[in-house]
Each structure stands twice: as structure tokens, then as C-alpha cells.
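Morning!

This is the sequence you dropped in the shared folder:
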Amino acid sequence: MSATLNQRIQQFYDASSGLWEQIWGEHMHHGYYGATGNDKKERRQAQIDLIEELLKWSDVQQAEKILDVGCGIGGSSLYLAEKFQAHVTGITLSPVQAARATERAQTAGLSQNTHFQVADALNMPFADATFDFVWSLESGEHMPDKVKFMQECCRVLKPGGKLLMVTWCHRPTDGVAGELTADERKHLEEIYQVYCLPYVISLPEYEAIARNLGLHDIRTADWSKAVAPFWNVVIDSALNPGAILGLLFSGWGTIQAALSLGLMSRGYERGLIRFGLLCGQRGKALSCPYRG
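The structure's back. C-alpha cells below.
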């Protein structure tokens, strides 16, 4: 399943990344609209604000070697490389994205600070304890094995290094609301199909994985309200002639994703989709076993 899923993800981003950049810019992630989601701001500024707010929340003030897991066309990677004067390695399943990120780095004069390559996040081609900061912004939802993914992120961290993972989740199921209903599962399945996702889990489940991996100083947060307006902004921008024309030339998968933007918007409205944050530090031990 993983190989087939990886091929689907690659094909989806190979086909859609050019259009996304043309219409929406280099940042392929949510925007931040204030803690309550009521701030009015330009979409790209909201995306940059999300990066800054995440760094502030996770208390990342400096880093020398950064891994961007699911780097897209290098939006976050280039921002972090310039902000911290750090060396950033970005990985993606899409050769088109890796090539475009490399081009953008050259244009920005950041070729010496960045490297982009095609790699599987479940089997990273890096030695243990390579990076002092692992940044994963909206890539965890694509992972068919959440434990293996977090284990790999932990493995490549240096002792004392920090993981910041931000990912799509579903609502917690251990509270009053209980297990997901049949209608909620159907809604999620439609999102999975459109956006090439195997499944998502709740934020408490991610926290449990992090604890079993032995990460220290674990923190979590739900920023669903802060980012939910993003999808309505994207829906509005997708209605302009340039976006519609671009969709016609980008393949059925991209068209289907654009037509299904409302799935995410409605998912946030009903409290089903959650925007989960988790950060933690690797301990001094060089091993990072899963004690499940």
C-alpha cells in the first residue's frame, strides 16, 4: 500500500504544485488568522505569520542544521534558511517539487544553505543524530505509518534537538463526543481520497506516540480556529479566471482537489478536522525506540 500511496502522492504534487505556485505562491500550507481566527489579512502574509507563530510557540530561536519533512517547493525551507542562517535539507516525494525548490533557492541566493531531494519520510537517507531541528508542516497526514514517521523524525535528531510537527488531525475520541460517527468517517474518507491521505489520527494519539518514543518536554496545541478561515480564502481565490484556466491544464486529480476544497472548510466548521501541533526534544540517548 505504501508504494502505491507514495506514487499517488508524487503524481498529485507533480501535477498540482505548478498551479499552486502560480495562483497562491510558494507556501503550500495554512495561514494564521489570530488565535480566534478573526484577524483579516492577505493570504500570503497569513502563511508567513503561521511560520513565525509556530517558531514562537515551539520556542525555536536558533538552529544550524534543519530538516524540512515534506518541503513542497521550498517555501518554509528558504524562509528558515534565511531567518536562521542555517543549512536546510528538504525532502519530498515529488521530483517536480524538489527541482522547483532547487531553482527557487538559486534565485534567492540560498543554494549554499539548502539542499532538496526526493526521499521517503518513513525511510530517511540520513544518519542518526544529523539535525538539530526537524520541521514537519502539514506532511504527517500523508504518512501511512504514523509511528514509523515520528520514529524517523526522532532518529535523525541530535540529542537535545527539537521536533516540531504540525499536521491535520481528526477530533479526539476519548472525550464526551466519543468515537467517530459513521457520517464523520465518511467525511474523512472523502478527504482522504481527494488529498491522497491514508488516514489521520487525533492529537492525543500523536502525543502518546511521542511519549513512547521518549521525547522530552512534549507540548501540544490545537490551532483549528486560528487557521480555519484559510480554506474559504483559497476557495474565493480559486474562482478567478487564471486559476480556472490553470486547473483545466493540470489534470483531473488537481481539478477534483479544487472542487473539493469545501470538504476541509466544512470539516473545520463541524469540529471534525483539527490542526494539531506537537513539539518535543530528543533526550541524550542516541537510540529512539518505540515502546508500544
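Headline: Residues 2-280 form a domain with the Rossmann fold fold (CATH 3.40.50.150).

More detail when I'm at my desk.
O.
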